């Protein structure tokens, strides 16, 4: 952890002061030690001088006494001389200390010291003082040698003492200077040490004040946010949060606290046994991935019923001044999106109403074409009454029936598009589709445009809904016709393609200069066997601005009222349900090629619906038909009557219930529409009559039903559902299933 700037300044100032104190203290101690050493030497030298002076005094006394004895031969002078020699011998015992001092002062032993020692040794050898000693010349020589040695030692010692005194004076002067310099520098250091911390403390205080202000501003910003924010450390403990977090998540007041573990918060946010937050182990794994780990966003229902958007994001700080545990962590945000979802739903409803208006204005065009085909062929069939015209009459009836089936397919496709239902697929041979579509396209497209369908005899079968495939080819052919107002040619062909690996369809070679291409799916086409169906025209083509919006519902380049913009969207939806995709290649002036990529069927055998075989006589079975539309009611009653049932008709649920009561609950079959006038709809009527007639077979009809659609919750399990429109064979199969259910019940 980095030190505070003020602390660093204090530490540096103290280190500088300590260094100077140690330096000057060491110099002062060295000077003091040197002066103490000189003082000790001076004391030892003074002691040695005292010994030498005593020796000099005794030698002088011996010489005086000797001269006095020589002059008077007085015994007193003899005794004086002997006493002086005795003192000299006593002083000789202290001579080793004099030798040590002289050797330390001179570092080299002086010759006078040896001379003095030899003279003292000579005197020490004199056993007694007799007249011979007093008269000997050697006595004068020994005493003179001591005098000479003392004079020499005294002069050397005086010079040494003067040198030591000069050194001491110089050292004392330097010590005073060092003391003065130390005092001055110490004062400067104290002033600097006080000024630097003061400045750094002031700067640190200002920085801390700015940090506090910034923290307060950030806190105010967090509290002003409309979303809840929580900051966690890498240990999963809560560090910071704002006031909105608890209210958005529906937590009790006081639940959020400093250091709250992430696991405790996750345990509190559980709805229907499922935690709203991801496990902490996932967060730890995200930390291992580093900054490349993406945020995690989820929409869910909160414990208070609100719609929430929860987002978890990692953060990695680069500031080295932070603690290691503060450099990483993650942020959890909670946003209440209830109002946004309501707005989106309202917007969706408004867009749906607008789409319904566009659909109502445009879909009439397609139905008018089909109704024209139906009514025209029926009229022609009615006029062909002669036997010779039977073939033409049958041809007209077949054309009318085919147009009616096209109307049924168009209605089912619209329901599939709006509800995302999946119509029942079948194994389809494209050769059959092309043969049926070729004649229809020739009549719908018009004489100015040539339609050509290639041979599809060797093309693999596909698993699709045949009516939807026919509708898709018709929509593409009509779009191609509108792109060629002056006439042209439309070619429909198919080919087999097999890829061992996934392939990007937009990377295939460009055909006929159509370099602008779009795909309904951005992902590559999976590996496998595919059937490609191409619808190609030589019209005006499309530019990039049109291709970018081509697959959007309700997008059209036609004038208002001339198109719904749902044709291409239905084609894309059909291919998506079949597991394929659509690729459009075009260029201005080079026409357009729309390719349908459909997966190959697993089996090459087309499924056929079992033919209906009439059951034995049903003259004893009674059927009740409930339908508010008289035409449909009449058709249903006629089909059941031809099948052998005794049929009774009713226009609503109440009338049907009264008929059952009047007949004494003797009906065997109920065929009813779901949407009936009055309080009893089809499901309620079926439930009431089932309670009275436990063995009643029930068939419910509605245009809202689809073959693979979800079963309504109000429908009893024994009810057979019949989608409208229906044909005779399909209707009788459903009735037979209902009667079989009646028998098994």
UniProtKB/TrEMBL annotation:
Its EC number is 2.7.13.3. Signal peptide: none annotated. Pfam families: HATPase_c, HisKA, Response_reg. Residues 622-739 form the Response regulatory domain. The chain crosses the membrane at residues 12-31, 178-196. It is an enzyme of class 2 (transferase). The keyword Phosphoprotein applies. SUPFAM superfamilies: ATPase domain of HSP90 chaperone/DNA topoisomerase II/histidine kinase, CheY-like, Homodimeric domain of signal transducing histidine kinase, PYP-like sensor domain (PAS domain). Keywords: Membrane, Phosphoprotein, Transmembrane, Transmembrane helix. GO terms for molecular function: phosphorelay sensor kinase activity. It catalyses: ATP + protein L-histidine = ADP + protein N-phospho-L-histidine. This is histidine kinase.
């Amino acid at each position: 952890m980095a030190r505070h700037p003020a602390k660093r300044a204090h530490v540096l100032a103290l280190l500088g002061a300590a260094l100077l104190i140690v330096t000057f203290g060491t110099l002062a101690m060295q000077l003091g030690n040197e002066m103490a050493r000189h003082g000790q030497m001076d004391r030892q030298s003074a002691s040695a001088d005292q010994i030498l002076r005593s020796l000099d005094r005794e030698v002088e006394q011996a010489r005086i006494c000797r001269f006095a004895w020589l002059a008077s031969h007085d015994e007193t002078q003899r005794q004086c001389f002997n006493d002086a020699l005795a003192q000299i011998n006593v002083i000789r015992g202290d001579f080793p200390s004099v030798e040590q001092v002289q050797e330390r002062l001179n570092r080299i032993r002086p010759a006078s010291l040896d001379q003095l020692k030899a003279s003292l040794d000579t005197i020490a050898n004199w056993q007694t003082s007799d007249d011979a000693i007093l008269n000997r010349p050697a006595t004068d020589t020994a005493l003179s040698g001591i005098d000479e040695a003392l004079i020499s030692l005294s002069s050397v010692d005086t010079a040494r003492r003067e040198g030591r005194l000069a050194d001491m004076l110089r050292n004392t002067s330097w010590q005073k200077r060092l003391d003065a310099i130390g005092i001055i520098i110490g004062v400067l250091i104290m002033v600097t040490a006080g000024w630097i911390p003061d400045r750094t403390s002031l700067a640190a205080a200002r920085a801390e004040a700015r940090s506090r202000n910034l923290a307060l501003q950030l806190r105010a910003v967090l509290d002003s946010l409309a979303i809840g924010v929580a900051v966690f450390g890498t240990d999963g403990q809560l560090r910071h949060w704002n006031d909105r977090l608890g209210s958005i998540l529906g937590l009790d007041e006081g639940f959020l606290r400093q250091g709250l573990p992430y696991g405790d918060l996750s345990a509190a946010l559980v709805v229907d046994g499922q935690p709203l937050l991801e496990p902490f182990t996932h967060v730890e794994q995200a930390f291992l991935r580093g900054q490349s780990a993406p945020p995690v966003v989820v929409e869910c229902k909160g414990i208070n019923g609100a719609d929430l958007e929860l987002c978890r994001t990692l953060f990695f700080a680069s500031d080295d001044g932070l603690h290691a545990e503060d450099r990483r962590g993650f942020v959890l945000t909670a946003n209440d999106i209830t109002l946004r979802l309501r707005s989106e739903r309202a917007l969706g409803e408004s867009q749906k109403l607008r789409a319904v208006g566009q659909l109502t204005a445009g879909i009439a065009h397609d139905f008018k074409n089909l109704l024209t085909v139906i009514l025209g062929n029926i009229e022609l069939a009615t006029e062909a009454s002669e036997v010779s015209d039977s073939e033409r009459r049958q041809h007209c009836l077949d054309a009318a029936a085919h147009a009616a089936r096209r109307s049924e397919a168009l209605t089912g496709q619209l329901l599939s598009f709006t509800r995302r239902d999946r119509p029942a697929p079948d194994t389809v041979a494209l050769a059959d589709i092309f043969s049926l579509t070729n004649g229809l396209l020739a009549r719908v497209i018009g004489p100015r445009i040539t339609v050509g369908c290639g041979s599809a005899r060797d093309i693999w079968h596909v698993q699709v809904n045949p009516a939807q495939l026919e509708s898709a080819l018709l929509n593409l052919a009509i779009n191609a016709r509108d792109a060629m107002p002056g006439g042209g040619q439309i070619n429909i062909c198919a080919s087999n393609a097999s890829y061992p690996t996934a392939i990007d369809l937009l990377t295939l070679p460009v055909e006929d200069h159509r370099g602008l291409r779009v795909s309904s799916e951005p992902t590559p086409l999976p590996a496998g066997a595919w059937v490609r169906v191409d619808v190609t025209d030589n019209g005006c083509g499309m530019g990039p601005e049109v291709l970018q919006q081509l697959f959007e519902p309700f997008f059209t380049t036609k004038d208002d009222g001339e198109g719904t913009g749902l044709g291409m969207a239905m084609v894309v939806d059909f291919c998506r349900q079949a597991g394929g995709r659509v690729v459009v290649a075009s260029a201005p002036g080079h026409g357009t090629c729309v390719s349908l990529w459909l997966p190959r069927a697993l089996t090459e055998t087309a499924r056929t619906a079992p033919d209906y075989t009439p059951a034995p006589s049903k003259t004893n079975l009674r059927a009740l038909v409930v339908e508010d539309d008289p035409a449909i009611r009449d058709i249903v009653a006629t089909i059941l009557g031809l099948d052998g049932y005794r049929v009774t008709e009713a226009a609503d649920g109440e009338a049907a219930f009264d008929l059952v009561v009047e007949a004494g609950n003797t009906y065997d079959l109920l065929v009813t529409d779901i949407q009936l006038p009055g309080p009893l709809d089809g499901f309620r009527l079926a439930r009431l009559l089932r309670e009275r007639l436990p063995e009643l077979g029930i068939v419910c009809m509605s245009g809202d039903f689809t073959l693979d659609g979800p079963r309504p919750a109000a429908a009893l399990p024994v009810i057979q559902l019949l989608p409208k429109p229906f044909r005779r064979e399909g209707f009788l199969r459903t009735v037979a299933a209902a009667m079989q259910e009646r028998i098994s019940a």
